[in-house]
Amino acid sequence: MNETTRTYDVIVIGGGPVGENVAERVRAAGLSTVVVERELLGGECSFWACDPSKALLRPVVARADASRVPGLDPAVAGPLDVERVLAHRDRMSSYWKDEDQAEWLNSVSVDLIRGHGRLTGPKQVAVQTPEGDTVVLTARHAVAVSTGTRATLPPIPGLDTARPWTSREATTADKVPGRLAVVGGGVVAVEMATAWQGLGSQVTMLVLDNGLLERMEPFAGELVTDTLREAGVDIRFNTTVTSLDREGGQDGEVRITLSDGGQLAADEILLATGRAPQTRDVGLESVGLTPGDWLAVDDTFQVTGVDGGWLYAVGDVNHRALMTHQGKYQARIAGTVIGARAKGEPIHDAPWGAHVATADHAAVPQVVFTTPEIASVGLTSREAEQSGRRIEVVDYDLARVAGAHQYGEDYRGRARMLIDTDRNTVVGVTFAGPGVGELVHSATIAVAGEVPLDRLWHAVPAFPTLGEVWLRLLETYRG
């Protein structure tokens, strides 16, 4: 076993989209940079989350949309070609190989060390390589932790022998389970229930709460619930799993015992019950932090409670907004900040400035790729009420918009806009309905830009598109 030492201006632990973007930004600022990655460069999003899940979902959602269009419905009524869908998923995931990502990192002059990186003290990182060697790294300016999150599993008796799916297995499975039980009611649960039901699985959802997508506007979860049930998904609310047992070895069925004493059999069970930070084994104790904790940061993504201002936490690991696009937004800011501080340049810390994150508080967009799609940004009505602001809620039936008619018959959808009546700006928007994912950026601009309603009236939507809902919401507000 060999040990080598190297010194860089910046060390990035974690080579997912967030870590890659931090590295690219600080390298563009002229700082020597290295990325340490223990799995695949490109991270969870590229190989086990965003890319493979959307590849599974797209044909399911497209078929559902097409089935409403007169003249198309008989042509799309049959089953999907599962083999081709899974092959496309594999291509979208680059067959779980990261050579292209490594080539890109090299093209921006960032070094890569494969292995498990751990902090060993201020500005110090030790990397255990797959070959058993140790590389000791020292940072002149900063270390950025971008290790993301992992699935959390509840303490259910029989969990070890049941070998449940997490989100990773759900997005990478090579065959359709005949019966799939999904525990959870959040985004992963509803998206994977949508995907695998559409591919031919009999899906049962076991939901602890009394609704789906409980963190969003209630009508969003209600519409998804209706559509899943119409597709044949068995959804059981207020249900707890008390024990699991997989019978007959690896390929045996899973016996699920429920809190009401009932039992359920499934070929696979997906536990979509939350995420935890990947910080258990990155050496936090060496700098006075608690292993396994989320890393608290300020608006420049410096970790609080660590002397010297050299440690940054970017992306899901700081628990501000657990989405890839927000993590990349954070990375652009953090990389710019690190570069500025290394050069002794002033930090512009006013709201919406180049060196602070403001959108993570005010304008976080999200799309849930179910049938129907759900798209949101900013506050929900419940959050707005809790904030103490004076808010007016404006609702509109999306089926009444001319653009919805182009999606065929029986369009079901809803739009909600939240107006801060003191400031005369939009602070939250939620859309539910086919095709609404493409509306979320216009909503994000309205919220992030704090566009006054008097000016928003002059943003004329094209006819006939779903975007015309903006005009209808404004008309409804004015009465």
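Above is the first protein from milestone M3; the second protein from the same milestone is given next.
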Amino acid sequence: MTAHAKSTAENTPENTPESTPETPPENRVDDAPLSRFHKKLALYSSGGPFLDGYVLSIIGVAMAQITPQLQLSDSAQGLIGASALIGIFLGAFVGGWLTDRFGRQLLYTIDLVAIIVCSVAQFWATDPVWLFVLRLLIGMAVGADYPIATSLLAEFTPRRYRGPLLGGLVVMWFVGAATAYIVGEIMLSYGGDDAWRWMLASATLPATVIVLLRHGTPESPRWLANKGRAEEAEAVLKKVYGPEATIADLPTEERENVDLKAIMRSGYGGRMLYITVFWTCSIVPLFAIYAFGPRILDALHLEGGLANIGEALITVMFLTGCVLALFCVNRMGRRPLVIHSFVWSGVALLLLGIFPDAPSNVIMALFALYALIIGGTQILQWVYPNELFPTEVRGSAVGLASSASRIGAAVGTYLVPVALTAWGIGGTMLAAAAISLLGAGVSVLWAPETRGMSLDEAATLPDRSPRSPRSPESLRV
């Protein structure tokens, strides 16, 4: 390689697409090739879901020590287990509103700093109230990251890769959960009486790494364009998609009455209702299993350390199911995937409820089946909300749906220890099955199909048509 060629290669921006098509794409943004920038953005955005899975799962292992040391009742266990979910409910909507108002980039790292501070503070928690408050604050920070990171990723990603990359965020949730159970079991074995404190504080390390990696991420050009900041939007487009990209490559998403309340009245309320119900039915059984997984498996005759190991193995199956769903989301389409996922995972839970005294290998097989099949609904939690609402309110819509779904998840998690005592494991699993089958029913009635659409097409209601590409002059101020 000549010195000139070497210098040229070294000065190539890291976000230059890895392959250049022989003919220009139909649209330099929606039909762009996948670049290193997109891959890095997807990786950095996945930090929030990783921490979510880690934080919500580590408490299940830590509870084995927390309960006797802090003398927790069933009700107190439920509150502490649900505290992060309650925080997500509060943080997701506020974070969504803030990211629509002030931009995606500004809040992209601030929320993780809050997780670091509160995770460290958990080490010195001395009573249930203090622990509840800290985990509530952590949940608020995690919830705020949902609309921030997913909106940013959705607005940069070409349509062909949007489903898999957004769905991939959920994969990282399960990576975080699996990591939590492995770390928790090691600390429980070797950490002594204070092992639970080290467990809860351990989220500090990955959160710090993610904050450092996210530094320097550019603002969404779609958000900038919708705020009338055309020159800044075009500068970002050229940096990410190449020097030929212009503001004209962004289709207009201007709509009348674009505040969230007006959009709900103008026809998007049905979409919000479906997203909320589908998301709730998807996460209530799953979060309950994660918050009290060892106790549930113990009730199903997998005892002690075997319960924690079983939970880790089930988490690996959850992860595998999400990866399989990523390969199906574009091939099957969104609607068939969500319906089949709900139906067959509900059947697995139904069998667990009917046969709670089955042999251990049968119990594990049914849990593994549930974990594999529910992956379709899990990845669509991030795909559907980001596709079905316009840029002006995408963050608020994702935040509102996430917040609303966490109401049911928090109530369900709180009631798990009470249900196990009152109904037994069979009744608890039957209730979980009913929730999954409810999700199947509402999906048959309301689930839309958005495969292959641009963001503007997917966010446009069926009786309306997307606008023409925006002109740079129309946005300059």
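Note on the second protein: Residues 92 and 146 are 7 Å apart (CA to CA).
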